Here is the input.
Amino acid sequence: MSSETSAPGPSAPSTPSTPSADPGKWLEYNRANWDERVPIHVDGEFYDLASFVAGRETLAEFELAEVGDVRGKRLLHLQSHIGTETLGWARHGAVVTGLDFSGPAMAAAASLAERIGVTDSRWFTSDVYDAAEALGGEQFDVVYTGKGALCWLPDIERWARVAASVVKPGGFLYLSEFHPFGNTLREEDGRTVGYDYFDASPQVWDEPGTYADAAAATRENVTVEFNHGLGDIVSALIAAGLRLEFLHEFDKTMFARYQVLEKRDGFYRLPEGMPRVPLMFSLRASKPA
Here is the structure.
């Protein structure tokens, strides 16, 4: 499943927009949707691969500070999409592995790695729930994920167990993600609570285009997404045997999720003077040595 600064997840919880769609086929729908959008993302302005190849940074400043020095460390990016963030870590010295359920995304990531000369990167096509098996039981110093990854997964406890299993003793998981409270806010003003924070039912969407190009012609438009509360995410990681080192919340986000947001300092924020709400969060959870 795909991540990047990208996959924002549902704009807000909703009743299913495609009543005939079967939420039980979430993996089939979501993979077809992402497979179709890979070439749009590779060729489009949103990911701007030309500037990435030229050296553009793809990781947020707070991520670099919170993860710390990765030189010589083995880093796994779960749900890595076309690899721009994965390869961003490689540019900071990590030996990187990307994993995503989209075969076209992994092919695009491998091609991008070749273009920038990251010859030791590896790319695995796998559903994230099968990551441990796909990686042959390999474990990593750093497991990185987020920014639109968790909304594609129905079972957060299972995700946490898998993520913890690929962290080596003494290593850590780092998650940088859109805050689930954002799913409760109406797009029009970004301040009105209009949706149920605790609604864990599948959200079925049937929407053409992509966050990277709303006008793109697409056919595989059905997706199934899931809301996970902050407490559920943290508790799942602790239950999986990881030790929470920190949990940070931010009043900024990576995209114009609500019409009222203003871009300042490279992020989107509510206008000055408005009460602030959490729009992103990050956490680091380590595995005892």
In short: The radius of gyration is 18 Å. Confidence is low (pLDDT under 50) at residues 1-16.
